[in-house]
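REQUEST ID: PR-0412
SUBMITTED BY: lab tech R.K.
PRIORITY: routine
TASK: structure prediction, single protein chain
INPUT:
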Amino acid sequence: MRNYEFIYIVSPEVEEEDLEGVTEKVGQMIADGGGQVMRLDPWGRRRLAYPIRKFHEGYYMVAQIQLEPGAISELGAKLGLTEEVIRYLLVRADERAGTATETAPVKEPSAEEEVKPHEEAAEDRGEVEPDEAPVGEEAAEDSEEEELEVDLGP
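STATUS: complete
OUTPUT:
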C-alpha cells in the first residue's frame, strides 16, 4: 500500500452536524478499496478560489490515507457519484519529503563562485569572454556614451 494525501471539499448544503456522516461515508469508500484513513484534519468552511457547481464555499477535509494504487480509479468513480463531495484531489505522499531537506545542507556560493545570471547568459551566447566582461563601476567608466539634451518646449 502507498501513502496518499487526500483532500476533498464537501458541499456547503451539508449541515455541520451531517459532516461526520459524510466523512464516514468517504472513509467507507476508502476501506472498500482495501485502504485505511490514517489521519483526518477538517479545515472547516472556507471560500473557494472559483465557483464549483455554483458554490462559492465548501467544507475542506484533508486526510492522510493508505491505499493500493489499483483502487484509485474505483475511489474516483465513487466520489464522482457522491453529491456531497464537490471536488477532490488525491496526491501520492513522498516518503522522502521530510528527510531530504534535513540531511542536505544548502551550500551558499562564495564571492569568487558567484556568477550573475545576465553575465552567464551572455557568456553562453558567446557575446562576452568570461574574464574580459566589465562589471559594475568598471563598465560605467569604460563606456563613452553621449548625453542628449532634450528641449521640452517654451
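NOTES: Residues 19-32 form the longest helix (14 residues).
REVIEWED BY: pending
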